[in-house]
UniProtKB/TrEMBL annotation:
<dbReference type="GO" id="GO:0008033">
    <property type="term" value="P:tRNA processing"/>
</dbReference>
<dbReference type="InterPro" id="IPR050156">
    <property type="entry name" value="TC-AMP_synthase_SUA5"/>
</dbReference>
<keyword id="KW-0548">Nucleotidyltransferase</keyword>
<dbReference type="GO" id="GO:0061710">
    <property type="term" value="F:L-threonylcarbamoyladenylate synthase"/>
</dbReference>
<feature type="domain" description="YrdC-like">
    <location>
        <begin position="14"/>
        <end position="199"/>
    </location>
</feature>
<dbReference type="GO" id="GO:0005524">
    <property type="term" value="F:ATP binding"/>
</dbReference>
<dbReference type="GO" id="GO:0003725">
    <property type="term" value="F:double-stranded RNA binding"/>
</dbReference>
<keyword id="KW-0963">Cytoplasm</keyword>
<comment type="similarity">
    <text>Belongs to the SUA5 family.</text>
</comment>
<dbReference type="GO" id="GO:0005737">
    <property type="term" value="C:cytoplasm"/>
</dbReference>
<dbReference type="Pfam" id="PF01300">
    <property type="entry name" value="Sua5_yciO_yrdC"/>
</dbReference>
<protein>
    <recommendedName>
        <fullName>L-threonylcarbamoyladenylate synthase</fullName>
        <ecNumber>2.7.7.87</ecNumber>
    </recommendedName>
</protein>
<dbReference type="GO" id="GO:0006450">
    <property type="term" value="P:regulation of translational fidelity"/>
</dbReference>
<keyword id="KW-0067">ATP-binding</keyword>
<dbReference type="InterPro" id="IPR017945">
    <property type="entry name" value="DHBP_synth_RibB-like_a/b_dom"/>
</dbReference>
<dbReference type="InterPro" id="IPR006070">
    <property type="entry name" value="Sua5-like_dom"/>
</dbReference>
<keyword id="KW-0547">Nucleotide-binding</keyword>
Length: 215
């Protein structure tokens, strides 16, 4: 049975965050608001929970799950190295709607799908998401919708698609942007934009000092 918590009320928000943290630590799924869309998430290091997330969305491991973090410094323990371009983008756009793909640290014991040794990282600009992430650590988070269906911009949208596969729904109202994050791959010699979303190519080019194009 799922529970929805109204995060616009302080008492309900505190109860919801506590319930969501407990669910994540128990290997269950939660839906949370972010600055772009609603996300469905779990403990990034719990392989069984990640498989449950993929099953809830109706998709396979060929589309790996990104990881959300609650601070800039968290990524230092998750990746092999943080190149200068990544630091520049983090300083310019985090917290915000930019996902950065880097080589993950080889020592990490996680299974996010067919990542080929990489991980997509983002720090969301949403107080509920940040508070939860700082409580539980890195989370594997994907858009809160069934594969092939419209992304959720309200908790009702998410609940109608995901139902009881999710233990806790955190209702943060209608998300401001309703646009997915931009994805930049920094694992090669040049930045590659795999998806242009809320952060534009022009904004990326300005920060990096070089023309960035869609792959």
């Amino acid at each position: 049975m799922s529970t929805i918590y109204d995060c616009s009320r302080q008492d309900s928000r505190e109860a919801g965050l506590a319930a969501a943290a407990g669910a994540i630590r128990s290997g269950r799924l939660v839906v949370l608001p972010t600055d772009t869309l609603y996300g469905i998430g779990c403990d990034a290091f719990d392989a069984a929970a990640v498989r449950s997330l993929l099953s809830a969305k109706g998709r396979g491991p060929d589309m790996p799950i990104p990881v959300l973090v609650g601070s800039w410094t968290t990524i230092d323990g998750l990746v092999f190295s943080v190149p200068t371009q990544a630091r520049q983008l983090i300083e310019a756009f985090w917290p915000g709607a930019l996902s950065i793909i880097l080589q993950h640290a080889p020592s990490l014991n996680w299974d996010l799908g067919d990542t080929r040794g990489t991980v997509a990282l983002r720090m969301p600009l949403h107080p509920v998401a940040i508070e939860l992430l700082r409580e539980v650590g890195p989370m594997a988070v994907s858009s809160a919708n069934r594969s092939g269906y419209a992304p959720a911009t309200t908790v009702a949208d998410a609940e109608s698609q995901l139902g009881d596969s999710v233990s806790v729904y955190l209702d943060g109202g209608t998300v401001d942007h309703g646009v997915a994050s931009t994805i930049v791959d920094l694992t090669g010699p040049e930045p590659r934009v795999l998806r242009e979303g809320a952060v534009t190519l022009a904004q990326l080019s300005e920060v990096l000092g070089t023309q960035v194009e869609l792959a």
